[in-house]
Amino acid sequence: MIKRLLVTGAGGRLGHHLREPLKGSAEILRLSDIVDISPAARGEEVVQCDLADREAVDALASDCDMILHLGAISGEASFDALLQGNFLGTYNLYEAARKAGVRRILFASTNHVIGFHAVGETLDHKSERRPDSLYGVSKCFGEDLSRFYYDKFGLETACLRIGSCFEAPKDRRMLSTWLSPRDFLSLVRKLIEVPTIGHLVLYGVSANRDAWWSNAHADFLGWKPRDTSEPYREAIEQSEKQPAEGSHYQGGRLAAIGILGKR
Ligand SMILES: NC(=O)c1ccc[n+]([C@@H]2O[C@H](COP(=O)([O-])OP(=O)(O)OC[C@H]3O[C@@H](n4cnc5c(N)ncnc54)[C@H](O)[C@@H]3O)[C@@H](O)[C@H]2O)c1
Fold first, then answer.
1. What residue ranges carry the coiled-coil annotation (predicted)?
2. Residue to mutate, 55, 70, 112, ligand 1, most ligand atoms under 8 Å from C-beta
């Protein structure tokens, strides 16, 4: 078991879901968010920290062995907001991790780095990135930064291109992109446990019938998603008769909307 696992964005939806089950993966969970998520339970440390604050992030990463980096603006936003939380925040985290000798980062990337690919195309880790939003661009930056830190310093990263992680798929698009919370947890656990990952890009998606993404290159992990969106298909197809905004694109609505704050 690793000694100390830092989880950024621990106050968000995914962080909240993982807080309890990740306890068995590290002796100490250091949980952090820009919002207050105290009190710390047994085996936890809680640190309130803005990822854009370089000194605070340096202190945050100290004495950590691995980092699950969930903290970010998690959808489309103005460039200025993304600049702080995602661009600067991710840079600060990688630099702090390097200085602290962190071994591995699990970086919560997104399917929106490939969102301008057409629905029905099958993509893998080598497919061209086609971000569908400034949010997607900010996660492309994080992926490139992680590659740079691996090539230059040997800091391992798994870039997890998470699909749609909700209790259940909510619309037709999610019949392809859904990642069940249970599959997400098993993937994170696997990525913590395997001895070596190098620099790995993979898709966070359940075993959906019409999935657009292949993780064949990551078979060595031995991760098998257990859930599928199929049981939800009939109800979703009944309720969503018209094509949704941006439905030609894998990124869906984010591919269709303009830049926020611009005309
Ligand atoms: N949930 C999904 O389906 C999904 C899909 C693709 C990618 N992701 C990525 O996974 C991660 C977690 O997603 P989520 O659904 O839990 O999002 P979320 O918005 O619920 O959680 C993100 C957390 O990050 C924190 N945060 C934002 N800016 C910060 C800053 N400057 N400093 C410190 N903390 C900050 C927020 O307070 C929040 O608690 C995000 O990076 C998101 O981009 C999620």
1. none
2. 70
The 10s digit of each residue's pLDDT in 19-57 is 999 999 999 999 999 999 999 999 999 999 999 999 999
CA–centroid distance, 90 to ligand 1, in Å, is: 12
C-alpha distance from residue 229 to each of 54, 188, 244 (Å): 41, 20, 18
> For the chain, which residues make up each domain, given as ranges?
2-256
CATH architecture under which domain 2-256 falls: 3-Layer(aba) Sandwich (3.40)
For residue 9, how far is its CA from the centre of ligand 1 (angstroms)? 6
User: 0.85 cut: is pTM over it?
Assistant: yes
Residue closest to 123 by CA, chosen among 34, 217, 186:
217
CA of 71 to the centre of ligand 1 (A): 5
Q: What amino acid positions are annotated as catalytic residues?
A: 135
| Average pLDDT of the residues in 97-121 | 97
Residues with CB under 6 A from ligand 1: 9, 11-15, 33-35, 50-52, 70-74, 84-85, 89, 108, 110, 162, 164-165
- Determine the pLDDT at residue 258: 87
- Using left for φ > 0, alpha for ψ between -120 and 50, and beta otherwise, residue 22 falls in alpha
